[in-house]
Each structure stands twice: as C-alpha cells, then as structure tokens.
Design brief:
With 201 residues, the chain is an alpha+beta fold. It contains six helices and ten strands, in the order αββββαβββαβααβαβ. The protein starts with a helix and ends in a 24-residue tail after the last strand. Keywords: Signal.
Length: 201
C-alpha cells in the first residue's frame, strides 16, 4: 500500500493522503465534491481522484468503506476534526460500563479468557480516556502468569475497586480534545512518589 500511496501523492498529485494499515484517509474542503460514476455518488474530490486511480491500477475497493463527512466513526470512536475531539459512542460507552459493573463483584469467578476480554475492551477505550489507565493494574495482576484460558480467577476487592473507579470516571468523561487535552498536575495529586531505578544509588 505504501507504493500505491507514493504514486498517488507524487505521480497523481493527490495531496495529503495518509494511511493506517490498509485504510487510507485525508481531508478536503467542505463542498469540494466530485461525482464518482461506478458508485453513482458524490465524494470529496480527492477521494474521488483516489478511487479513480485505484480503478486505473486495478486495486479493488467497496462502496461501504468509502466513508466521508464532518464526523466519522474510526476504529469504533467518533472522530470530529472540526471540534477536534475523539469520543466513544454513547452506546459503546454504555455497553462497556454495563459489562464492567457485571464483572466487578467481589467473589465472582471469571475465566482467564473473560478477564482478557474485559481487559482488552477497557484497553481499547483508553485511546479516548488515557487518564483512566490505572484501572487495569489489579486486573492485569490477577491475570499474570496464567495461561489456561478456561482457568477461573476470583474477583477480589482490588479489581472491583479499580473497575468501579473506571466506570465512575467513564460515565462523566467526554473523551479527548485534541487541542485541549488535560494532564493531571502535581498540585492535583493526592500522593507523589519519587524513586530511583538505579541499583547503585
């Protein structure tokens, strides 16, 4: 795909193309549309030129994947370049919150596979809620060293506490604002620990 993009940019002069794995994306000015006959629809002009180039070299593509608009669903997140925000869709956030609440009960025994599934789901959400990373510590600690996917693992108080903290923050967080991302400062910390990783001091 890299060579195809290079040709599109430097030979066909379709500027500002980017790629992530096998997805190509870019931007165009609002209202700058061009008709793409094979799909009988209008698309941003650069996207139309890229589709025509792909047709020229025989690269297959499908109409349902040709998304465009002022707000897009990308990797399961709502991306709004005009508002400069990345958020989790309301339904996806509610589903995750519900799954965590079901999981986070002291004394429950879930399989390693279920722990991994929930951990992966939460980890995915951290793309939008990066400040909630601490919520996975106890969960990962419970999985450490275990390899049998059907092995049952007790849900302890530490896991429950961290997961419920995550849900509490998830329910009131609005995602990432690309131009106004927040960091917790030292003055907001309840505890600050300095350490030295050097074995000789």
């Amino acid at each position: 795909m890299a060579l195809v993009l290079w040709i599109a940019i430097y030979v066909k002069f379709i500027i500002d193309l980017f790629a992530w794995v096998d997805d190509t994306f870019g931007w165009d000015f609002g209202g700058n549309l061009a008709y793409y006959a094979p799909y009988a629809d209008f698309y941003p002009a650069r996207q139309t030129r890229l589709l025509e180039f792909w047709d020229e070299i025989g690269l297959p593509h499908d109409k349902p994947k040709q998304e465009w608009g002022s707000k897009l669903l990308i990797l399961g997140f709502d991306v709004d370049p005009n508002a400069m925000t990345i958020t989790m869709p309301v339904e996806a956030r509610a589903d995750l919150s519900q799954a965590i609440r079901k999981f986070a009960v002291v004394g429950n025994r879930w399989t390693l596979k279920e722990y991994q599934h929930l951990g992966g789901w939460i980890n995915w959400s951290l793309n939008v809620y990066p400040l909630l990373r601490p919520a996975l510590s106890a969960l990962y600690e419970k999985m450490a060293g275990k390899t049998k996917s059907n092995q049952r693992i007790w849900t302890n108080k530490a896991v429950v506490r961290e997961l419920l903290w995550f849900v509490e923050k998830l329910d009131v967080s609005d995602g990432v604002r690309m131009l106004d991302s927040e960091e917790w400062g030292l003055e907001e910390a309840e505890l600050v620990i300095y350490c030295d990783a050097c074995p000789t001091g």
